[in-house]
């Protein structure tokens, strides 16, 4: 279960060059340093806003552009626990799953969620719940992940999942 506060941007076609600025693509840096540059050309205040927000909500075709893996990584290392969008560019979608960052396509939830709302996401059942004070929770369904993808997310991404499988097979 992922629970957190929403950071919402009413934007479509946010590309990887905006999520992770191209000028940093070939700069080696520790994961802990990535958040200071995430989304800097899109929203210079992102690094401040994301401090208390865990669920990023965006429009359609999020992550279009190049297959820059840092675009998914910088969001995860910024504290984003899940991204909810109308749709994702396929390579961004795959890169996010590869690092264990859940990406959820649910246009109805995008329409309903507002900046600052509380969201609870159950990946196993495919349900996102919008929770606002003094209102009944609203539920939105999305396509559930298959078990192997849930395991990949639980393990922290593809590399960690393979590492755990190899250790298990070796009896470590």
Provide the structure class. Answer: alpha/beta
Question: Count of DSSP helices?
Answer: 7
Q: What is the radius of gyration computed over CA atoms, rounded to a whole number of angstroms?
A: 16 Å
Q: How do the strands of the widest beta sheet line up side by side?
A: 4-3-2-1-5-6-7
Q: Report the CATH C-level class.
A: Alpha Beta
What does this structure look like?
The chain is 31% helix and 19% strand. It is of the alpha/beta class and 172 residues long. The protein has one domain (2-170): Aconitase, domain 4 (Alpha-Beta Barrel), CATH 3.20.19. It has a seven-stranded mixed β-sheet. Helix 6 crosses helix 7. The chain is globular, with a radius of gyration of 16 Å. The mean pLDDT is 95.
Tell me the layout of helices and strands.
Layout: E1 2-8, H1 16-19, H2 46-49, E2 55-58, H3 70-77, E3 82-85, H4 90-98, E4 103-105, H5 107-112, E5 118-122, E6 127-131, E7 138-141, H6 147-155, H7 158-170
Parallel strand pairs: 1-2, 2-3, 3-4
Antiparallel strand pairs: 1-5, 5-6, 6-7
Short key terms for the protein model shown above:
globular; seven-stranded mixed β-sheet; Aconitase, domain 4
Compact summary:
This protein has 172 residues and is an alpha/beta fold. Helix content is 31%, strand content 19%. The longest helix is centred in the C-terminal third of the chain and has 13 residues, at 158-170.
């Amino acid at each position: 279960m992922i629970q957190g506060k929403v950071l919402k941007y009413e934007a479509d076609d946010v590309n990887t060059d905006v999520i992770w600025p191209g000028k940093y693509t070939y700069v080696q840096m520790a994961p802990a340093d990535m958040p200071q540059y995430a989304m800097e050309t899109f929203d210079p205040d992102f690094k401040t806003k994301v401090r208390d927000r865990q669920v990023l909500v965006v429009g359609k075709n999020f992550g279009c552009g190049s297959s820059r893996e840092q675009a998914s990584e910088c969001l995860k290392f910024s504290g984003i626990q899940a991204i909810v969008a109308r749709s994702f560019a396929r390579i961004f979608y795959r890169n996010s799953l590869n690092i264990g960052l859940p990406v959820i396509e649910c246009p109805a939830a995008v329409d309903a969620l507002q900046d600052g709302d509380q969201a609870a996401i159950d990946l196993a059942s495919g349900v996102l719940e919008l929770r606002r004070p003094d209102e009944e929770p609203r539920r939105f369904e999305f396509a559930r992940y298959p078990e192997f993808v849930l395991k990949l997310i639980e393990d922290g991404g593809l590399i960690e999942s393979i590492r755990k499988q190899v250790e298990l097979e070796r009896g470590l």
